[in-house]
Amino acid sequence: MALDHALLVSLLEKPSSGYELARRFDRSIGYFWHATHQQIYKVLARMEEAGWIVAEVQAGATAPDRKEYSVAAPGRAELSRWLAAPTDPEGTRDALMVKLRGAAFDDPARLLPELEHHRATHANRLTAYRIIETRDFAGTLDRQRALQYMVLKSGIRFEQGWLEWCEEALEVLRSFGQDQSRRTTP
Amino acid sequence: MALDHALLVSLLEKPSSGYELARRFDRSIGYFWHATHQQIYKVLARMEEAGWIVAEVQAGATAPDRKEYSVAAPGRAELSRWLAAPTDPEGTRDALMVKLRGAAFDDPARLLPELEHHRATHANRLTAYRIIETRDFAGTLDRQRALQYMVLKSGIRFEQGWLEWCEEALEVLRSFGQDQSRRTTP
DNA sequence: CCCAGCATGTAAGAGGTTACATGATTGC
DNA sequence: GCAATCATGTAACCTCTTACATGCTGGG
Lengths: 186, 186
What we know:
The structure is a homodimer. The first copy, chain A, is mostly helical.
């Protein structure tokens, strides 16, 4: 149930419409939590009914009237409660790892494009993060900035780790290319 | 739909009952993909109906008869197809990052126990991986072993990154402890 | 005139979690 | 006798994804 809280934080940072939130979940916030607009609208409606957020309807300007949500006192209280409540680190679920172990029963070389694609993706993300780092987090930071920077830093660390691992995995897979045996269990 | 494939790989590595698979998903396989027994039984039933796997019923020994599943030709074909099909690196979803950004609107010190818990969890996992590493992956490795080792290495890299990041985050949070202002937006 | 962007949603289905349910065997 | 382990599942519920649906405004 953490999408609720991600939206609360997002709305505290800046009151927004569902549409705007959806766009932010495709960029900045999306780097550590992603969600589609369908999900977002549903959760916003639920939270409004619960009184966690309030909508200010801005009529006239747009086709369906724009609704700008902001966090109400109960929403703030709920966020505060959730912040102090312990959560276990989430279990990993990575299809690529399954594929690697599965490659032992197929031709490992078929994974090469996949791994290269992953490497490229992680390299791109790392570059994007580095740009944000120099642009937004140089010099002295206030408390909010410092916290945001910690989040960005986790992303940087993470992507760099992935990148290095991809290189290593590619080397290992390529070293298999020499021998022509196709399966370990034919 | 990747649990199907995780189970196929697992059954190729060793034909098993649903119960055994569930236990392995709580340990070795669970390090990169977790699933409950309820899920596993459902997917096994579906895959058996689809002809991907076959069950050998071992009657008599246990209360509900034990069913040992192994992968049939169509299952192998499906796995092969999936291995070559591209998948995007999955989007991150980390509640801890949401909490960090949320802490700017609350007392950041309340996150300390959570972060310490995370640090401890990642430290424990790292230790567990290191033990597996020395025990199972020393010396020369065949192809299957080399692939498994790559998976383990990603886990090690990952946990080490988390660990270092946790230390860093704890230091930053503690540095806030000096000033007593409670909220950025009161 | 058309397309991109803004803005809202509904609906069906797949996947995942939590709780419930049963029953034999083995070791203490 | 009791608890742990082996072994199978069902049911309710929630979340997430994918597809569908509508309609205005502004720029080229």
